[in-house]
Amino acid sequence: MSFQSKLILWYSDKKRDLPWRATNNPYTIWLSEIILQQTQIKQGLPYYEEFVANYPTVFDLAEASETSVLKLWQGLGYYSRARNLHTTAKHIAYELNGKFPDNYKDLLKLKGVGDYTASAIASIAFNEPAAVVDGNVYRVLSRYFGIDTPINTSAGIKEFKTLASSLILKDQPATYNQALMEFGALQCKPKNPNCEACPLNANCAALQHQRVGELPVKLKKTKISTKYFNFIVGIDQQQQTFIEQRTHKGIWQNLYQFPLIESDKSLSSEEFHKLKLENSILENITFDYALYNEVDVIHKLSHQHLHTKFWIIETQTLPEGAIPIKSLKKYPVPALINDFITQFGF
Fold it and tell me: What does the pLDDT look like over 38-56, one tens digit per residue?
């Protein structure tokens, strides 16, 4: 039995029952693929269900405000995905009359859609033999064929895409692609896979040469930077607080946060007291302050670690633009801020 046949046989018995597998609607398939980028299914599934419930068609998503989309996305991280999702929905609804491109080449032109996502939509929604290559596929192919070319290099990306394209079944690309990805997720796991029960074990190069734990090969990431954040949590006698929108480019673009002061180290109360407060909301007001967390909250992102302190500022009246504390939960905020709001009891 061939590699492909064994995968499909395994998939027919072991696949998970997921809502986007019961349709060939390109809108919901696209939605699921964007949500599941860099997100595990168990985390992404509730978000998918919420998006489908709130925005059942691409027109509904296009007509939503960006703030509403970001709020629904809150907690998933990598917020550029949500902004691109909204931009693409408007493009499809208003410029393409609600019709998704029906082939890999044109799908690739959509904002936020890369090689993997275009291949997944093209194969699953339109039955085009476009090979998917994601983390699961890299792992299965590198182990089975014994390939040690680093997967995060140009040479590796090209090699694995070429191999994947040569293997795809032209008469059932959707089933084959999903079988290969599911196999990597459930059977050929990153750590301690059950190789004894694997239907591919007789011909797996990594297993034969005892290299399962070594493959796939990935070059070390760029050095992670450290930043020190001091969030100013204002509370006045009218039970108002102050938040600001992050308008500059970055992972939290267009999300809301408490006013932020960055420092070059973790600050003590005495050091915070000595801070120059020009151009901050504290510049011209009288206030009392207290440190909420003595130990830094460390929020780990892919490229940086944020060491964070929250400073509770009590004052008679906050500057113009303050909002009622009870309305805080209406605004989309980073997970770091949302966790604080929940813990503090706002």
Answer: 889 999 999 999 999 999 9
Beta-bridged to residue 209, according to DSSP, are none
**Distance separating alpha carbons of residues 287 and 234, to the nearest angstrom:** 9
| CA separation for the pair 109, 104 (Å, rounded) | 9
Rounded Cα gap, residues 180 and 212, in angstroms = 17
Among 152, 127, 129, 130, which residue's Cα sits nearest to residue 139?
A: 152
Give this prediction's pTM.
0.84
State which CATH number among 3.40.50.150, 3.90.79.10, 2.60.40.420, 3.40.640.10 fits the domain covering 225-344.
3.90.79.10
Burial environment of residue 47 by CB neighbours within 10 A (0 to 12, 13 to 18, 19 or more): buried
Domain 3-214: which CATH class? mainly alpha
Q: Which of 33, 128, 159, 283 is catalytic?
A: 33
CA distance 121 to 102: 9
User: What residue spans define the domains of the chain?
Assistant: 3-214, 225-344
Q: What's the one-letter identity of residue 188?
A: C
pLDDT tens per residue across span 137-180: 999 999 999 999 999 999 999 999 999 999 999 999 999 999 99
Distance between CA 20 and CA 33 in Å, rounded?
9
Q: How far apart are CA 188 and CA 191, in angstroms?
A: 8
Rounded CA separation 74/338 (Å): 9
Closest CA to 290 of 313, 309, 267: 313
For the question of residue 262 being annotated catalytic, the response is: no
